[in-house]
């Protein structure tokens, strides 16, 4: 019989919480033949990633996943075989009581945020003792073999490689977003938080000897972009040109379309957790705007990832990339380090593809979860 899974997602802010859980839910259904209910407390965030969804529906089936509005006042339901509490969100008390009372035992997993820090492998899979007798474990995504791995659909890389090899497919996709490719242009996507480094980077892009097309999906970075441009409020499909830099505002697209946008670009600026991982599967150089935490804790996470990512990278390319990423995340002048990144472009491009293949040789997160459950039974 198919196992049943409940995934609980509380949207803290932005799109990362729902982005990760929606992607995981879809993959579990598609590749592991399990029944998934995804409980979301903010359907408006979900609808941005899955535009065909209904914001008002208490329950709906989307791509095989039963997406349920997580009600403020919880109504009793039969708990699933596996319960995933994403990012330590608190489960409804009544649900936890029902888990303990269920005849067939329940596996309870706390799916944590992604981090490249060393301690992750040591904590992945550890039990978290519960007074009610239900077995709960920590599940850590990560980059090392000892971690839970990264979200990656089974045929993702094959799809990506086929798309990148097909100039017409890329052209048609960009055209569907209203983007006309300029002759010989370098294509860059920009998804970031508010960022003081942006202006110096844009200045550098205007001075580039190549034509650059910068594609900016709607989001938090638009205010800084608008300030730099000195224009009125930016709208979807707005276009501006400064020197060799052509800027276009894009709509916020579905997750699958966003993947194709990353695959289409020569360089991607991404942020948070999920787009950060997707940029790595794109096999192209990228910069990560990490989600800020109190006391600069995020800078340690940034360095932990860089340390892994820069292994086996030629020293000068590694130095250039590291400087640019630090400037980007510290909100400092980023034009000079961007210039150095240009000097090492071929090495960085080669490295991005190598890193992608290396990471893809490890077990993906959904498969690791499914296996964890089978081992636990
Ligand atoms: O939105 P984010 O900044 O989310 C963050 C992080 O996850 C962070 O760790 C978490 O603590 C915080 O939220 C609460 O960035 P992230 O993780 O990249 O999520 C964005 C999602 O939006 C991702 O699934 C990709 C998707 N997306 C689209 O589907 N279409 C788009 O056009 C764009 C730009 C993004």
Description:
This protein is an alpha/beta fold and 377 residues long. The chain folds into two domains: 4-150 and 363-376, Rossmann fold, CATH 3.40.50; 156-360, Rossmann fold. It contains 15 helices and 14 strands. The strands form two sheets. Strands 3-4-2-1-5-6-8-7 form an eight-stranded mixed β-sheet, with helices on one face. A six-stranded mixed β-sheet has the order 11-12-10-9-13-14. Helix 1 (16-32) links the parallel strand 1 and strand 2 (35-40). The two termini are 14 Å apart. The mean pLDDT is 97. 2'-deoxy-thymidine-beta-L-rhamnose binds next to helix 1, helix 9 and helix 10. 2'-deoxy-thymidine-beta-L-rhamnose binds at residues 12-17, 19, 49, 113, 191, 217, 219, 252-255, 258, 271-276, 291.
Number of contiguous helices? 15
CATH architecture of the largest domain: 3-Layer(aba) Sandwich
Specify the biggest β-sheet: 8 strands, mixed
Topology pattern, helix = H, strand = E = EHEHEEEHEHEEHHEHEHEEHEHEHHHHH
SSE inventory with pairings:
Blueprint (H helix, E strand, L loop, with lengths): L3 E6 L6 H17 L2 E6 L2 H7 L9 E4 L2 E5 L12 E5 L6 H9 L5 E5 L7 H5 L3 E2 L6 E5 L16 H10 L1 H10 L9 E5 L7 H9 L5 E6 L4 H8 L9 E4 L2 E6 L4 H10 L2 E5 L2 H8 L4 E4 L7 H13 L5 H16 L4 H9 L1 H16 L4 H12 L1
Parallel strand pairs: 1-2, 1-5, 2-4, 5-6, 6-8, 9-10, 9-13, 10-12, 13-14
Antiparallel strand pairs: 3-4, 7-8, 11-12
Helix pairs in contact: 1-15, 7-13, 12-13
The structure holds 2'-deoxy-thymidine-beta-L-rhamnose.
The site of 2'-deoxy-thymidine-beta-L-rhamnose has 24 residues, from helix 1, helix 9 and helix 10.
